[in-house]
Amino acid sequence: MSNQSNSLTSFALQKFKRNFWGVFSLSIICCIGLISVFAYVLAPDTSKNANQMHLSIHSKPPGFRVQMLTIPSGVSTKQPFWSSLFFGKENTDTEIPIQSYEITDNTLHYSEYASDGVQGLKKEIALSQFPNGKFRKFIETRTFIFGTDKYGRDYLSRILIGSRISFFIGFVAVFISLIIGLIMGSLAGYYGGRLDALIMWIINVTWSIPTLLLVIAITLALGKGFWQVFIAVGLTMWVEVARVVRGQIISAKELQYVTAARALGYKDYRIITKHILPNILGPLIVISAANFAAAILIESGLSFLGIGAQPPMASWGAMIKDHYNYIILGKPYLALIPGFCIMLLVMAFMLVGNALRDAMDVKS
Rounded to whole angstroms, what are the CA distances from 232 to 220, 293, 352? Predict the structure, then answer.
């Protein structure tokens, strides 16, 4: 039995490897996953949530360049390396976009950046405020590859860090839905009778409520926040898993290997977990891939409505909400870039799900 199972698994893997779009989509998912984990390594703005604002350079186009003066605060912030790597740096320094500067009498005179050819305010600062008077390393020309958002934040950094929510909500939501769905579907399918009728009634009632409306209700009950959204989305997606598991177990429990397990005196828990569930993993993997895509879309919709991840946390849905008005103001890329990222990730998960379905179809 195990040899046959291994041969079927290897056959499914071979079929999946021959599917170009499935392999290509899986590579995209892996790349986005690595980007989301190491976002602060790749992001130009390494401050927490990439929330370094410069209102004087707001809504600048991709490729915008400006001189940036960093004034050290003199406050030392001790932060573990792993914390800055995964959660960003606690930045207490002041960054000022400038147009020009000059040095006279141990004083740095600079003009703040102003757009549309307007002369910026002229200010000065003593060179003694810089360590050892070396000010040149605190003035750099910074390039904003994706431009800046309406608050003057680096848009590329916000996009990279915003991938975390969209990517990890899939894992958390699918994990929660699998746990609840497996338990409810297994009990309903294996035991049947009144327990099956009760569980199916709960499933049908939950199924009849619009998903987005149910998520909004759960989010409002749990509060607005990062983990609340993850839990809310997971609590609404278990019904599909439960229905699939129930149907698979109803057909599988009448097969010979389950009858043989009962004859040997195995307990119901072992029969379900050791014999039935491993043989219905195919449909579960496919529906989990689809649930990944659905969770990303639901989170994006919640963030767009303002009840998802809260500012200043970066989220693709919230970025679309902040900038959708710019579509008619001549800067549509501010809304199109996060929209394209959502589309790319959702499409990748859907194509992987289709490829897995075809690979695990024994009839083809």
Answer: 10, 16, 25
Residues β-bridged to residue 139:
69
Name the residue range of residue 282's domain: 2-34+156-359
What gap in Å lies between CA 261 and CA 267, rounded to an integer?
A: 9
Q: Judging by DSSP bridges, how do beta strands 94-104 and 107-112 pair with one another?
A: antiparallel
Q: Count Cβ atoms below 10 Å from residue 278 Cβ, excluding itself.
A: 9
DSSP secondary structure code for residue 343 in this structure: H
- pLDDT tens sequence across 208-231: 888 778 877 887 787 777 788 888
**Residues 20-40: b if buried by 16+ CB within 10 A, e if exposed:** eebeebbebbeebbebbeebb
Contact 151/159 with Cβ under 8 angstroms? no
Q: Domain containing 15 — which CATH number?
A: 1.10.3720.10
Residue 317: inside a domain, yes or no? yes
User: Degrees (nearest 5) of the Cα angle 76, 54, 139?
Assistant: 60
The position carrying tokens 């501010």 is: 334
| Beta bridge mates, 3 | none
24-57, pLDDT tens digit by residue? 999 999 999 999 999 999 999 999 899 999 999 9
Same domain, 138 and 180: no
